[in-house]
UniProtKB/TrEMBL annotation:
InterPro entries the UniProt entry points to: At4g02000-like, Zn_knuckle_CX2CX4HX4C
Record's protein name: Zinc knuckle CX2CX4HX4C domain-containing protein
Superkingdom classification of source: Eukaryota
Organism: Gossypium harknessii
Zinc knuckle CX2CX4HX4C domain span: 109-151
Pfam families cross-referenced by the UniProt entry: zf-CCHC_4
PANTHER family the UniProt entry points to: DUF4283 DOMAIN-CONTAINING PROTEIN, GLYCINE-RICH CELL WALL STRUCTURAL PROTEIN 1.8-LIKE
Coiled coil, from the record: none
Amino acid sequence: MLEEKVNRDAMYRVFKSLWFTKEEVNFIAVKEDVILCLFAMLPYVKDQDTDAYAFNLTPFWLRIFNIPLEYMDKQVATDVGKAIEEVVAIDWRDRDGGWTEYIRLKVMIDVSKPLRRVVHLVSSDGAEIVCAIKYERLPTFCYICGLISHST
């Protein structure tokens, strides 16, 4: 996503220390001299072409704020997650075992598209509720266009 000169030795040292591996670790360049700010790992599939891997899909934990207390249930969490992208997991507890401030979801995000910042809910009386989305541990991204590949 962000083109910079790759220091393969430094990358090797960092990942080897993070993974605590005893065996040898091999890195294969998908595209020469390009490093991603967001590191995507996918399981290796024998005889699968590198173009078939979806490196643009990455799971992120996110929090949905401003949901009225009466709507904080499993169905709303699932519906909100599906509106954003594919739901991977739902964290059912917030603080003391019940949701209070937000719903926390793990959602598969296409990082090549702009990030969503809000979700719109319609209450039983027809009122529209705008719910803010906050992403956890998000790499550098642009607050103007919503893309992860740059900051301004």
